[in-house]
Amino acid sequence: MAKDRKNVFSGWENLDTDILVMIFKYFSLDELTSGVAHVCRGWRVACCDPILWNTLDLSHMRTKFLKVSCMPCWYLVGHSDKDVTRILKLSMSLSKRNTKTLIFHYDLFPNDDMITYTTRRCPNLRRLVLPSWDRLEERGICDAISFCKKLESLTMPSMPNPHFVFSAIRENCKKFRELKVMGPIDLFFVQNLVCLLPKLKVLSLRCTSIRIDALTKILDKMKRLEVLNVSHSYIEVSDTEVTEVPWSTVIEKAFKLKQFVACKDPKTCVKCQWTDKDEGVMRWNMYDEGLWKEDEISSLHL
């Protein structure tokens, strides 16, 4: 009987690779990068299977920081950067350039080197979910996007000067079609969007504030836009304009779209009330943990 058992089980390294991959699919990113690949050669081969690395999801990782009184108003806890760097390096080693979706947590604060290092090793990247811009410089973002030739979808916070990001996308990402912005939208932002990304097909501006004239400009100028989401958003009306565009006109213009998502009754919608209370700058950490991942557009929902 002992002899029979020996014939049946000849070693971990001889387990079928497909079976190992199926098992490893249930492992977390931390488990996959914590030494599983070093058990034996067979496990290493299984850990490098493209199926496991189609999506690199870092949405479980948040930067640990302390609030301080001086600028920039926070101080990074030392080991946070080391943890992120370790995970990125191990993931890039195992993924073998097969990652197509890269997701950062909204409160993860990587620096330019981390972003550039990762995108350089993801030449087949189709979707990128970026964190806040606290530690990212214009040059770093442009360098990172320059490696994303196949990028189709981007989720990003708003920024004072979006020109450099949109220019980099226009120059490098010929198949780009989908954008989600998590933050206030003003007319200057929209002017850059309309000018530099006129072929955009899907746009989500949920849970933010947007001027009604900016929204109208999007509907008028972006001729190829098919899907627009402004659910739970606060639509601002400028006090300086003599004649305002009524909401009914916005609805009329939106009829040309395949899908237009907006709240029917913002006064009774809890999420609309949150957006209003936060003045269009959502404090995501104050609400449900996964709120920032949600979207009424299925292709943008995490």
TrEMBL record:
F-box domain location: 17-58
InterPro entries hit by this protein: F-box-like_dom_sf (IPR036047), F-box_dom (IPR001810), LRR_dom_sf (IPR032675)
SUPFAM superfamilies: F-box domain, RNI-like
Taxonomy, superkingdom: Eukaryota
Pfam families, per database record: F-box-like
PANTHER family tied to this protein: F-BOX DOMAIN CONTAINING PROTEIN, EXPRESSED (PTHR38926)
Listed name of the protein: F-box domain-containing protein
Organism listed in the record: Eutrema salsugineum (Saltwater cress)
